[in-house]
Amino acid sequence: xxxxxxxxxxxxxxxxxxxxxxxxxxxxxxxxxxxxxxxxxxxxxxxxxxxxxxxxxxxxxxxxxxxxxxxxxxxxxxxxxxxxxxxxxxxxxxxxxxxxxxxxxxxxxxxxxxxxxxxxxxxxxxxxxxxxxxxxxxxxxxxxxxxxxxxxxxxxxxxxxxxxxxxxxxxxxxxxxxxxxxxxxxxxxxxxxxxxxxxxxxxxxxxxxxxxxxxxxxxxxxxxxxxxxxxxxxxxxxxxxxxxxxxxxxxxxxxxxxxxxxxxxxxxxxxxxxxxxxxxxxxxxxxxxxxx
Length: 292
Description:
Immunoglobulin-like; 41% strand
């Protein structure tokens, strides 16, 4: 190879090396740009999500203010009780204004009644209805010159008359593993506070694991000690299930509970299964809805 050829070969090799290095550098820059673009896109999506959330909150607040300003009422309330298979629904409203000559009417479940007032500020009426899952009360201000009407929010009776429960097995360290504890308490501020006071004595129905066969029944007793997990304002009960836990059976404990007015509740609240090397048991918390 001549001297010139060696120089050309060396130059070519150098060119290849420089080109490869340039390509490598460009790939690194491309990766950096891709990473930066991905970060920018993520930031943009996050910003859009936050903006949408803020706009939704503002829109909801504006709609709420508009509804309040447009409402004919300053206050309203719906109370529900149950007795002898009937619902007693009392609707109470406080108008922002009652014009001269207007009479106030309330309508629930297809029944319309003139509302009564004791102080001229709040008007109410009570309706006796068959059990239903929900109601939509309305109020109307009627005079010879026209009618002003407003439909109130829907009332879901299953929620209004619902309760919550918490069940747990006793502590084996205190030799209480055969005791099932139960606490029943109000569901929320929307629940009727009187229901809890009207509760009768709960009954536990012991069912085979498939739920088909009733193995026995036993009443629960009021529990004076506040167990861990119990609500201070709830009603607390206990039952000794040792006679069932000692058998080679798998079963479910179903709670049956009713108020003085006749609202019935039914829910599976605990399980037990005897095994060769011991046993397994279950309990927990949940909702109690009326069984119509």
